[in-house]
Amino acid sequence: MHVKLPVATLAAATLMASSAMPVVADKASGTLNVAFTKELENVDSYFNSAREGVVLQRAIWDGLIYRDPETNEYIGNLATSWEWIDDTTLEFKLREGVTFHNGEAFNADDVVFTVDFVAKEENGVKTQRNVNWMESAEKIDDYTVRIHLKDKFPAAIEFLSGPVSIYPNEYYAEVGPSGMGLKPVGTGPYKVSEVVPGQHFVLEANENYYDSPKGQPEIAKIDIRTIPDVNTQMAELFSGSLDLIWQVPADQANKLAEMGQFTVANESTMRVGYVQMDAAGRSGDNPFTNKLVRQAVNHAINRQELVDALLQGKSKVVYTPCFPSQFGCVQDVTEYEYDPEKAKALLAEAGYPDGFTVDFYAYRDRQYAEAITSYLNAVGIQTNFNMLQYSALRELNMKGEVPIAFQTWGSYSINDASAMVSQFFKHGSLDNAQDDQVLEWLNVADSSTDPDERIEYYTKALQRISEEAFWAPMFTYNTNYVFKDEVAYTPTPDEVLRFVDMSWK
Amino acid sequence: MTDATDPLSAELQGPSPRQMLKSRAFSHKGLMFGVIVVGLLVLVALLAPLLAPHDPYAQSLMKRMVPPVFMGGTWEHPLGTDHLGRDYLSRLLYGARVSLLIGTVAALISGVIGTAMGVAAGYFGGKVDAVVTFLINVRLAMPVVLVALAVVAILGGSLTVVICVLGLLLWDRFAVVMRASTLQISRRDYVAAAQVIGASTPRILLTEIMPNVFNNLIVIVTLEMAHAILLEAALSFLGLGVQPPTPSWGLMVSEGKNMMLFEPWLVLIPGAVLFVLVLAINLMGDGLRDVTAPEGRS
User: Fold this and answer.
1) Which residue has the higher pLDDT, B140 or B6?
2) Is residue A93 within a helix (H) or strand (E), and if so which, with residue range?
3) pLDDT confidence band for B9 (50 / 70 / 90)
C-alpha cells in the first residue's frame, strides 16, 4: 500500500497536468504559453534570487519608480514624484486610486510596511544588497512617505525602480512570504490566478490596471510551465504547445532561425562572465596569489573567440568586473590581449615554467567552462574540472575554498556598477582579492552623491582591479528569445521578459 | 610411439578435449563476433595515439560541430567535431581507452574481492559462509547506481574514484557464483583425496578448486566488465564520472545531448560504439559459457 500510493498520486498528477495542457495554444485561445527553465523556490520576489523571479516580479508587482528600459529615464510609477530631503532621506508623493489585486487600496501604509519588513535583516530577504541600504520608512500622510537611508546611497533610485516592489500591508502581514509565494498579490499589470510549485503559474491581465508607465497588458492569459530541458522546450514549440521560449543557447537559436517559422530575437543581458582567482590566498597557498600568474590567466584566454564561436549574438568582450552600460563602469582599464606565449612566459617568470595543476570550478554553461579550461591547459595550467550546483559553489566560495572558478553575475539588472564590483570587492565573504585600496575607493564611489566623484573613484578601483588582474573578466552574455510569428515582442537589453509589452499580431 | 601414428588408434582415441574445445569455440558465431570486436577495440585503444588523426584535446572554436563524412563533412574530420571543435574520431579512440580501462580494472578488483569471499565461503562453510552470505545480502540490498552516485558526489568525479567505486561495488555476482561452484567442487572425491594425503589448504584451493571454477569466473568477469562500462557511461553522462576534458563515451553523449534535436550524430556515434562494445563483451561471455560448459547448453 505504501509503495502503491505515490505511484497512484503521480499518475493522477500526470493526468491532471495533461488535461490542464491547452489543446490550442495560440492567438485564438488568447493564452500565451511560456516555458521557464528553472523552478522558483518562492514566487515572493524578495525570497528568490532567480531571473525567473525578476520576470514574475515585474509582472505582478510595481515599484515606486519605473526605469524606461530603452531610454533609462526614471519615471514615477506608484510614486508620482520624489525629492531628496537630505543625503539620506527621500520623500515620495504617492499615486492615488491604485488598488491591489485583492481589492486592498494602495497608500503610504503599504510602503512603510514593505520597506520596514524587507530592510530588517532578520526577516531574511534573500539578496540583502537589494534592500539593506534602507533604514526605515515614515508615513507623512496617506499619500506622502519618506524613506530613510542607512547611509548615503546614490543608486537608491535605481534600486527603487528595480528589485524593491511594494506589497499590500494587511495581506502580507497575514500570510507572510510563504503565503505570498503561493498566492501573490500586487498592483502589477498581471494578477496570479494559479501557482502550482514546480509545474506552472497562470497569470491573467489586470483589467483595473492604473495608468502606469509600464503600459496596459494586452495578452489576456499567460501560462508559464517549468520545463528544465531545452530539447523538450523546443519540441513543444514545434508541436505548438508553447508560444515563447527564452534563454535559448546560441547553437539551437541559429537552427531555429534557419527554420523560418519562428521569430528569433537576440538581446544582450547585463550578465558578465569572468574567471575568479584566489588572489588573497584564502584557499591556502596557491599560485594565484602571484600577480604574474593572474596576468598569465588573463592572457591565456581568447575572449574574442569565445564570443564569436560560443556566445555569439550581441555578446561583447569585457575587461571590467561590471557591465559597460552600468553607471561608473568605466572602460578605460588594462586590456589583456590573447597571447598564449606571453602567458607561458609570465608563468615561467612566476616560477612555474612547467605550469601547475589546480581545481577548477564552474556552475553553469559547462560548454564555456570547458573551453576556458582548454585555454588554460594550453599554457600549462592543468585543471581538475568540477561542475557544481550554484548554491554549492557559492557556499564553497564563501568558505574561501575555491582557487579558480568560472563565474557569472547578472547584477539583478541594476544599471549601476555598485551592483557588481561592490558586491565582490568590498571584503565580503565572496571577495577573493581582499584588497584594502580597492575597498577604500569603492566606499567613496558607492556613497558619494556627486556623480563626477563617483566616476573618479570607480575608475580608480576598476583600474587597480584590472591592473592587479584580480579577475579575468571575459564577456557579456546575450539571450535568445524564440517565439511564434504571431507574437509581437521586442526584448529589452536587461534580460527581463516583459509580458506587458507582448501582444498578438 | 607407433600408436600415435597408427590411424586406427587415432580414430579410437578421437579428438582430445582441448581440440574439441577449440572446434566448438571456432564454430560458435556469437563468441567469434565478440572476440573479434573486443579484440579490435582493445587494439584501437592501445594504438590510439598512432591511429588518432588529431589531438583529442585540441580545441578549435572556429570549427565547431562539423558534421561527419557521411553527413556532408570532409575527411579532415571523418566523424566530425564536437561542440568545442575537437576531432570526434580522435576522442572516440581515446574514449575506448577509458571505457576498457574502467571495465577491466573494475572487473579485476571486484573479481579478486568476490572470488576470495566466494571460495572461502564455499570451502570452509560454517561461520565463514554465514558472514560472507550476510555481506552478499547487504551488498545486494544496495542499489549500485545510487551508491555510486552518492560516493562520487562526495569524493568528486575522477577516473581513479570511478574505478575504485565500481570495483568495490560489483563483487556480488562473483561471490555468489564462486561460493556455489566451490561448494559443489569441494565435495568431490579428488578434493577429499587431496585432504587425505595431507595437502595444505592453500594448495587445495589453488590446485584443486580454482582450476575447476575458473570457467565460471571468466564468464562473470565479462558480464561485470560490460556492467562497469555501462555504469561509467551513466555516471559520466550525469556529470559525476570522468571529468572533462578526458574523453569518455558517456561524457560525449552528455555533451551532445543539448544539440540532439539538430545534430543527432553527436549522440548517435558514441552511443553506437558503446552499444557495440557492450554487446560484444556480453556475446563473448555467453559464448565462453556455452563452449566451456556444453552440458549447460539448451
Assistant:
1) B140
2) strand A89-94
3) low
Q: DSSP characters for A38-61?
A: SPPS-SSGGG--SHHHHHHHHHH-
As beta bridge partners, residue A406 has A275, A362
Asked if A371's CB is within 8 angstroms of B59's CB, the reply is yes
- In chain B, the residue whose alpha carbon lies closest to the alpha carbon of A238 is B261
DSSP-H helix ranges across A301-339 = 303-305
A385 touches chain B (CB under 8 A): yes
Pairing between strand A31-36 and A221-226?
Answer: parallel
Handedness of CA A229, A234, A238, A241 (dihedral sign): positive
Residue B65: its chain A contacts at CB < 8 A? 251
Question: Which chain B residues are closer than 8 Å to A232 by Cβ?
Answer: none
Kindly list the residues from chain B whose CB atom is less than 8 angstroms away from the CB atom of residue A234: 261
The closest alpha carbon to A312, from A479, A495, A473, belongs to A479
- B110-123, pLDDT tens digit by residue? 999 999 999 999 88
Q: Do A255 and B262 touch (CB under 8 A)?
A: yes
ipTM: 0.74
pLDDT in tens, A476-496: 999 999 999 999 999 988 888
Residue in A249, A367, A374 nearest the CB of B57: A374
Give the span between the Cα atoms of B10 and B2, in whole angstroms.
11
Task: Take residue A198 and report the three cell numbers written for it.
Answer: 514546480
How far does Cα A180 stand from its chain's mean position?
A: 21
- Determine the CATH number of domain A45-219: 3.40.190.10
- Say how many C-beta atoms besides its own lie within 10 A of residue A274's C-beta: 22
- DSSP state for residue A104 in the 8-state scheme: P
Which residue of B83, B85, B244 is in closest CB contact with A385? Answer: B244
Interface probe with B: pick from A366, A376, A379, A382, most Cβ of B within 10 Å: A366
For chain A, helix, strand, coil in percent to 5 are 35, 25, 40
Supply the pTM of this predicted model. 0.78
Mean pLDDT (chain A, rounded): 89
Residue in B62, B158, B260 nearest the CB of A309: B62
DSSP state of A310: I
Contacts with B257 from chain A: Cβ below 8 Å: 231
A&B contacts, CB < 8 Å = 63
Question: Comparing C-alpha atoms, which of B169, B170, B178 is closest to residue B124?
Answer: B178
B172-185 vs B210-237: helix crossing angle, rounded to 10 = 170
Q: What are phi and psi of A272, to 5 degrees?
A: -115, 130
> Which residues on chain A are in Cβ contact (under 8 Å) with B244?
366, 370, 373, 385
- Of the candidates B57, B239, B258, the beta carbon closest to that of A231 is on B258
Is A399 in the B-facing interface, judged by CB distances under 8 Å? no
B85-107 pLDDT per residue, tens:
899 999 999 999 988 999 999 99
Binary contact (A371, B239; C-beta < 8 A): no
